[in-house]
Structure formats: C-alpha cells, structure tokens
Amino acid sequence: MQIKSYLGLLAVAILGACNSANKSTETKDSITVSESDTTKAVALGFKDEKLQTIYTSYIKLKDQLVASNYNDAKPAAVELASSLKGLTGCESATTIAHKIAEAKDIKAQRAAFTDLNVELIPVFKHATLTSGTIYLQHCPMANKGDGGDWLASEKNIRNPYYGDEMMECGRVAEEIKAK
Questions:
Q1: Which residues constitute the domain of residue 133?
Q2: What are 25-48's pLDDT values in tens digits?
Q3: Which of 12, 80, 114, 116 lies deepest, with the highest CB count within 10 Å?
C-alpha cells in the first residue's frame, strides 16, 4: 500500500515539475507571443522548394497530433508521404509517414511520429533557410521518459506527444535560422 502511495506521489511530482517548468517561463512566453507572431509574419522559406512542401506537410501532421485529431492526422500523414517521394535519403521517412496514416489509434501515430522526427530533423537542420526560424523542441517526458523531439515554426510549445494532456510540456532545444 505504501509503495502505491509513493508511486502516486512520484507521478504527481513529475507532472508538477513539467508544469512548473512551463509556469516559470510563462511570463517569458507571454512576452514572446508577440515575437512569435512577428516570426510567423515572416514566412518560413527554404532555398529548396521541395523542402518547403515537405515542411508544410510535416507541420500539418504535427498540428493534428497536437490537437489529438486521430482521423485528421491520417490524410496529413499521406500528404507528407507524398511530398517525401523522390527525395533521396528520405525513404524511411516516407515509410513511417505511411505507418502514421495506417495507425489504429493516436497513441500509435504519436509513437511513429518519434521515428519520423529521427529521420526528418537532420534533413531540416541541414536545409538552407532563406527566411524565418525553425524551432527544434523537446519534451523530456514523451515516450515513457525517453523524450521526444519535433519541429515547430514558433517558440510557443504545443506538444504533439500529449496534446491537451500536457500541451506546454517541453522546451526549445535549438533554433535553425535563415543564413
């Protein structure tokens, strides 16, 4: 009985730590909202038009996972898979996008999204941006505590691994800027 109580308290402490980390930056984030809006006004642009299409499709998928829209994530994943076709070195990412489209539930989609990010984040880290910034974000609690990364067009954290459960859990780990 005491072990269950201890584990329960531990779980609450972990969730509280994630939420308190966000609360400590809440003031900063509210200030950055206007900066984020300004960043959005400056369109994100890539030197390679194909990468622009892929990134746009990726963001559509990520946004559906953030909103926990299982059914809408399916066509977004199909669109991403289609945009990835023909890009050398992205064959695995194409397969993973199809896996997300065929997943039986949101949990399986989110698990495959982790694998998708392993494939796509390096592509965008090496892409030439002509304008804007890509934010590499990280949630330490995703994937049973192993963590998970994703890309975003704004600093504001919107967690695709948890959606409404822990929307703001995470941090900006890196900024990929136009050169």
A1: 29-177
A2: 332 232 233 333 333 435 899 999
A3: 80
